Amino acid sequence: MRAIVAGLISLIALACGQSKQDKNLEPAIEAQDEIVLPHPIQLDTSIIDTVSVKGALEQRLIDAGLVDLQMAIPGILVDLRYSTSNNFFGKDVYGELDKAYIQPVVAEMLKKAQLALEQQNPSLTFLVFDGVRPQSVQQILWDELDKPEKVKPLYVADPKKGSLHNFGVAVDLTIADRSSGKPLDMGTDFDFFGYPAYPDREAQMLKEGKINLQQIDNRELLREVMKEAGFKGIGSEWWHFNAFSRKIASEKFEIVK
Length: 257
Description:
Oligomer: single chain
Number of domains: 2
Low-confidence stretches: 11-53
């Protein structure tokens, strides 16, 4: 037995020595193939990060060239609401997807906004509710919204026309405490359908006591840093921001189905 072990060690040492002498030579694979080890080698699969099974939807987003916001922007938080039942229609429509994906150029813009926010207050960060939203999911939101057809477009884009979320150039987000993850008080929750959530109605809602000055200040901070990075908000949702107009988005990007 000792002779066999010694022989094995000699073979391995010889192979290593040859590979060091000439990098163009192949290792002594044939010799190693002849070796029968007493115990099979056990691989630690926990360290093989690149071999992972992704959900079909997430793989579609990756194939479309979109990026994971938390990989692109260190410190950003994500609470993908449509991947839970904590949303306006109480259903999970994203399945296995729990990451926010977006166009790479939009991720760069959001990174600038994050840096601007950190300069204002290092203890704060963004908390993202939604990024790219496939058109198929847009249809579900449209169908589930319990509003008259004529007012639905105020809250959910008609899937026939497409939302900027469908292009991966819109983001829904708020500001949160970096350490606890607790969002700042914005006066309403995400996807609240009513005037208290309208940036265009803040003066009126303040006068009526529906929101307060601190909540408006928090919204102003969000708008300020997003605008500084090139985003534009909308009049009916304090959490929604667009990186591009519909015209530019349709010229530069494809709708994610």
